[in-house]
Input
Amino acid sequence: MRLSGKEKVSYGLGAVGKDMVYMLSASYVLYYFQDLLGVSAWAMGVILLAARVFDAFNDPIMGVLVAKTRTRWGKFRPWLMIGTLTNAVVLFIMFAAPPSLDGPGLVAYAAITYILWGVTYTMMDIPYWSMIPAFTESGKERENLTTLARSSAGVGSALVVIVTMIAVHALGGGNERVGFKWFSLIIAILFVFFITLTCVNIKENATVDMEAPSLKQMFRALLQNDQAMTVVIAIVLINCAIYTTSNLLIYFFKYDFGGIGWFNSYTLFNTFGGAIQILAMMLMFPFLRKFMDTVKIFYVCLASAIIGYLVLMGICFINVNNVVILFIPGFFIFAANGILQVLTTIFLANSVDYGELKNNRRDESVIFSMQTFVVKLASGVAAMIASTALALLNLSSESNSEAMDFSLQVAASSKAGLRMTMALLPVIGLVIGLFWFRKHFVLGEEKMAAITEELKNRE
Output
């Protein structure tokens, strides 16, 4: 691999930091504003989805800006550092809403800070992932760096999922609103530290020097890359399923699974799930890779996730009060999610080579701007689904005391609706994703070997 061991470690640490930030926003911004601050679920759904519509225009433009950038530090690192610093500041502001705000003022605060968070995250995320196809060739070299980055990102996500509620309660002394404020500050500082290591230790000595395209050329190249679009649509469907569940999981434990100190069960489940997701990326994927190509592993993981959701749906409709039972479907879902994150990034990186062969342009920045956009789009759609369910099911509380059993406040019909939204809708999305990918994706190992050989011959 072109990167040294020091550069690989630094690149991986950057993924840890950025996905800590992303997971804090993706999993808890709805809960923070809706359940803790009292913003209506409908308003939050509109805000989260509208921000993703805005990203439809912002993300490709950011890809163009990255592609046009020429500095002594390269074209990726300047944006990576600028985006990180601004995103860290916005993250803290977003989770530090002034107590004096309420009503329309609070809604406006949520909308402005969340949209700014998305814009600044894009500034950092696109150049980060664009480094992979710029620094590697297709095959094992690219798979290894992608696996490292995605595994590191999984570690960052898992750490936030595992420790958030424990840290929030500890830092806030039982006041979750205060706890989120200080926890977001800690995450923001770690984020800046890790990305700084990435920028300092990685040298851009292998980027492809090409004439910067116009915005029109970029959109044309993207739309003409049918394999990139195939992967993008699959990412949307998969992540909509996963994020719908992750958005509602905290409500499931708080209002359905219930009990005093409900966050202990929630934290235990997330600890198990985070560990499985990390192990899947680091150990299960390399093990499966010995026996199957990446496309077959993709199908196995989709089947695993579907099975996990079906088991979860079955468990949800029997009176279970032991969190360990939920580890069974959790294993299938978390393991599949971890490996799918690695695979979709590999497929998207391969589509850059495919696009270069087909369109005579190497558009890694724009292709990966689509990954940034579709992941955020999926989180927005999932948040809209979750907020709609919360509004219809009337799931909220005026109190956040640890010493309350919130499940006693919720009707049986609301609990049933919550379970169905968490389990059934994701199955539908995953099944559609499976058929879509099977019909349209053609970049198997033999095809990629032929593309790589052809590109070398062109040189």
Summary: The mean pLDDT is 83. DSSP finds 14 helices and no strands in the chain.
